[in-house]
Structures are given as C-alpha cells and as structure tokens.
Amino acid sequence: MESPSLIHRIFLSLWVLLLPFWDLGAGVALVLAFFAAVLPNLSAARRRWSQSAPMWPLWGVVLMVVLGSLWHPTSLDGYLRHLPLILVFWAYDRESIARSLPVGAIAIMAFLLGAGMLRVLEGAEWDTLVYRGLLKGLHQHVYIGTYLLLAALAVQNGPWSGRIKGFFWALTLLFLGLLGAKMLLISALLAAGWVAFRDRSFPRWALPAVAILTLGFGLAQGLAQGRAMGHVLKPVDPHWATGSVDTRIVQVQAAWELIQEKPWLGWGPESTQPALNARYTQMDYRFGVKRALNVHNQWVEWALTYGLVGLGIWLVTAAAGFRVARPNPLTLGVFVLYFGSLWLTESFMERSLGVSLVAMAWMWGVVPKKEN
To answer: Is 261 exposed, middle or buried (0-12, 13-18, 19+ CB in 10 A)?
Structure first.
C-alpha cells in the first residue's frame, strides 16, 4: 500500500498509546486507522489481500471463533475482541508503531510509579509499588510487561544513541522486576536465549540486564506481602490453593475434566466460565469461585472453549499460511518461544489488550518488512 497519510498515522499512534489505558478508545482508534488506510485507495487494499498469507496463522484464530459460533452462541464482545487480528494487517505502519510505543511505555511507567508514590504519601504500605499493587487501575502485569518489552525493542531498533537505548532498557528491566511477573520473565529469557543461540554469541549486555532484573525482582520480593517466592510453590490442594503455581494446576485440572465431557466442539465462549465456576465449586476451590478465574492457560482455554474441531481449524489455517509464506526463523522463534510459553500460564488472548499485543508483535516481527 502507499505511504500512510497523516490522519492514518495519528489514529494508529492513538491506538498504541491508548492500548494500556482504555480498551474502547484504542479499539475505535484502530478502526479509524483501518478506514484511513483503506478508503483512499481501495485497489491497493485489494492487492494487499493477495499478500495476506503471513497473517493466516492469526486469522486462523478468527476463523476458529467465527466458525465456532455456528454451534455455540458468541457475544458481540467476543467478535470485537478478535477484530485487531484482521484490521492490523491493513492499518499497520511500522514507523508509526515504533515511534509511539516508547512514548506509551514512558507514560505507563510514569503513571504507575507516580500513582504508587501518591498512595505511599497518603499512608499506603510500600508494597503498593510492586506486583499488583503497582498496577492498580490498569491491566495485569503480563500485558503491561509485554507492552514495555515491545517498546524497548522499538527503541533498540530506532535511531537513538547507545546511551539512550541502554538507559531505556535498564528502566524497562527494573520495572519488569518490580512487576514480579515470573512467567513473563522466563518467557523473555527464553526468547533472548533463542537470539543468542542463533547469533552464536553471548551479548555483553546480558550480565548487566540480569543484574538489573535481579535488583527489581529483589525489591519486589522484599516489599511483597504474601507474594514472595515461598508463597508460590505450595502443595496442590483446591481448598487452600492461592499461589501462582497451585492455582494454575487446579484450574487446568478442572478444565481437563470439562474437556473430556465435550472434547470435539467444546463448551463455547458463553458457557466456558460458568462451567468452570461450577466445577470449582465441586472441587471446593474457593479462590477460583471467588475470583471467577479462567484457566490461565491459553492452549487449554481454546481446547475447552472450541474443542478439537476448533483447534484443528486454527492449526490447518496456520499450516497453510506457513506453507505459502515462510517467516524468518529468528523472529518466528522469538515470537513462538515468548508467547507460546507465556500462554502456558496465562489465557492471554481472553483480553482485547492481549489480542492487540499479539497482532502488533506478529506484524512487527514475523510478517516481512516489505509487506508492512
């Protein structure tokens, strides 16, 4: 498609900036960016359709949702949540995203730390500056952390000096440590390890990065109340489960029992959570009933919701896309290792921010640059 217009870049930048703060506003901005990209040149938009094979792995998720609605009722919210997977292909502009992400990341960190310090000055405990206390009013740490990592990558690939890049990375890593998202950190290390393996080298920034992460994570552990490492690994007992690991094991157990009841077509997006809540009650899983927790595993969540047929639709579509357009092994590996491992402990795509982050990362890292 042609170079983006000013109005297109403005709406796309608004989408990026609003994502962590306002789901509805971000969604509207992306729709407007899509129309600003498509309407001025419909013939170019149609030509772009012929280049869409790299997007098929993501569009397979949309197809799974749409076809799944033939045998399960799906709310309007369920459709709208997955809309970025389609719109971003036409609305995406690499330069606009790369410029907006760092601004959004700085806004997030300033807002969260500023709001946290105000709470401390008003008498709150210092643990309001770590873990979920730091995120009051915003999304969970895995979403915010992923946004910050994408912003740091944008800075790394931008025109800034080495000092600015190093400072931005240091600030991001310190903030990720304070967030204390253990699986996000593991997923990021897996992705970084893949890059190091492909490059056959150990980057000089690795030790400083680990030191900064350790500092932030150590502060989080020191200030946390009930979230320290000793409270994570607990014996698995549904009645008492409240930790990071035991709760997820119980939730997957509940989901697996439900999957066996409806293995082919699943329970559907409108019935999955009520079925989980009922199973939690049977298991005496008090924490899950109180919080109405989802599975916290995207793979199992999809199997529970859409069954083997739904997963098959997605896998066939993804395989067809990879057969037509082979992505760069380095960037594909980073994407798969990061999100694939993160999805083992988070139902990441059950929120609109998660869907948008996946779409953005796929377009940026996996789809060839010449096509976006």
So the answer is: exposed
